[in-house]
From TrEMBL:
This is Activator of photopigment and puc expression. SUPFAM superfamilies: Acylphosphatase/BLUF domain-like. Transmembrane segments: none annotated. GO terms for molecular function: blue light photoreceptor activity; FAD binding. InterPro entries: Acylphosphatase-like_dom_sf, BLUF_domain. Residues 3-94 form the BLUF domain. Coiled coil: none annotated.
Amino acid sequence: MNLYRLIYMSDAADYIDWEDLKDILTKSEKNNAKIDVTGMLVFSDNKFLQVLEGPAKNLSSLYAKISQDARHRNCLLISYTPIHQRVFSAWAMKGVNLAFMKPEMKQFLVKKYGASGTGIALPKDEFLAFSVLYDVYHLNQA
Ligand SMILES: Cc1cc2nc3c(=O)[nH]c(=O)nc-3n(C[C@H](O)[C@H](O)[C@H](O)COP(=O)(O)O)c2cc1C
């Protein structure tokens, strides 16, 4: 199968609240399961960092749809690469709000990546963005 991983970052719309996030996640879980996409959506200091893994054509049409969504803006594509295997395979979509993480986990992330607002600073660099996502993914499996 032609598997790809897509990572992007965006600024949440000012009005976004927990209910909006829940709506996004409920819909995403349902939709992504149907198109064989797995991944995670991290929310920190009014920014989104999302990773999506799945068949190339499904990912590109999904990203085209997501990037038009008025609940965020300034979508910045960080990486879109072919992969041999999924790394973020546990959920069709899992939302993680870094402001609500356990203090010791947040401290671990802040030490590594720096603080921003009530969350951690989300990096735009491809390697660092992957690293944050990988850490958050495994902290949520523990
Ligand atoms: C930050 C963000 C992440 C999103 N992630 C997904 C996603 O992973 N899968 C998805 O189907 N929709 C996602 N959405 C929602 C889509 O933009 C769109 O509203 C939804 O897919 C429409 O679903 P429908 O065509 O079934 O009505 C996301 C929206 C935002 C703002």
